[in-house]
Amino acid sequence: MRSRRPTLVELEALRATIADGTTANAARRLGRSQSSVSRALAQLEARLGVPLFERAGREIRPTAEALAVDRELDGVFAALDRVAAGMDAATGQRLVLAVPPAFALSLVPAALVRFAAAHPAVTTQVDIALSGEVVSLVAEGRADLGLTDSSPLHAGIRLEPFRRSRMACVLPAGHPLAARSVVEPRDLADVPFIALTRRHSMRARLDALFAEAGVARRIVAEASSAIVALELVCVGLGVTLMNPLSLADRDDPRLALLRFEPEMEYHTAFVLPRQGAASPHARRFQRAVTTSLRRDPWSEAC
User: Fold this and answer.
1) How many CB atoms lie within 10 A of CB 206?
2) % of residues, the chain, pLDDT over 90
3) pLDDT tens digits along 134-165
């Protein structure tokens, strides 16, 4: 009796044929003969008991059943990619980073140049994720090292703070408040304000601060990441409060940065798995980050 469990050869044939439109193109992608791809598809149809493709002239179109199977394969092939990446990591040839968008554009590039020059045989994978997802990726072993400026509580990770920075008010350069040296909550009453979404830990602290000061902000937009908030400031939509470390390597004449009082601090930290020692390449990349940071008036080493 034929097993109903598909083989990897059959699933690869299905995925490639859906992606490339013909068995000939799928064969070229997979490095096989067209007849072997067609045979694999026929075997898969027999196993599943459903048609997977319909012919329309010289073209073949995937059926609804084929597309449903293909969606299920996303996790299968992602797992296979992780296995391959794990083998690279085991032989010291791969480093996987998980970083928020703002740090991917500010802290990571200079550090990665330094790291790659010292370790040219290592491939670095940079996964962009929000801070909560960064924590999950590291805790689940899908990333070797993460970066965050939030204060996550997760049993599977530990934080190693390396930079302390003071919150800054970021405004368009020509904004009426840009002439001030300090901005306070009362100065932002009725000023169009760009806030981070409530999933960010700093959002709750800011909400409490403005409530205590009796100031109602006019929130015109909420952004899921600091880099989006920053771009909205650049186009003149409003002002925001953020970690100036995200601007470490950004010299933008469209922006003005002012001190915000009462002072609120960010602690930017490396995210590492709680169990076991950090990988040697993770430690080397940490050093690359800390040695690549430029001196600035907003932050200092922890």
Assistant:
1) 19
2) 49
3) 998 998 888 999 999 987 778 889 999 999 99
Using CA atoms, how far apart are residues 148 and 289, in angstroms rounded to an integer?
13
Residue 88's pLDDT band (cuts 50, 70, 90)? low
**Could you give all domains of the chain from N- to C-terminal order, each with its CATH number?**
8-87 (1.10.10.10), 92-163+267-301 (3.40.190.10), 165-265 (3.40.190.10)
- SS3 labels along the chain: CCCCCCCHHHHHHHHHHHHHCCHHHHHHHHCCCHHHHHHHHHHHHHHHCCCCEEEECCEEEECHHHHHHHHHHHHHHHHHHHHHHHHHHHCCCEEEEEECHHHHHHCHHHHHHHHHHHCCCCEEEEEECCHHHHHHHHHCCCCCEEEECCCCCCCCEEEEEEEEEECEEEEECCCHHHHCCEECHHHHCCCEEEEECCCCHHHHHHHHHHHHCCCCCEEEEEECCHHHHHHHHHCCCCEEEECHHHHCCCCCCCEEEEEECCCCEEEEEEEEECCCCCCHHHHHHHHHHHHHCCCCCCEEEC
Tell me which of 17-26, 68-77, 164-173, 244-253 is least confident: 244-253
pTM above 0.90, yes or no: no
Nearest to 6 by CA among 83, 84, 73, 78: 73
279 contacts: CB under 8 Å, gap ≥ 6:
89, 95, 144, 145
Mean pLDDT for the stretch of residues 198-212: 90
The pLDDT of residue 208 is 94
- Tokens 């390449």, located at residue: 281
- Which residues make beta-bridge pairs with 195? 222
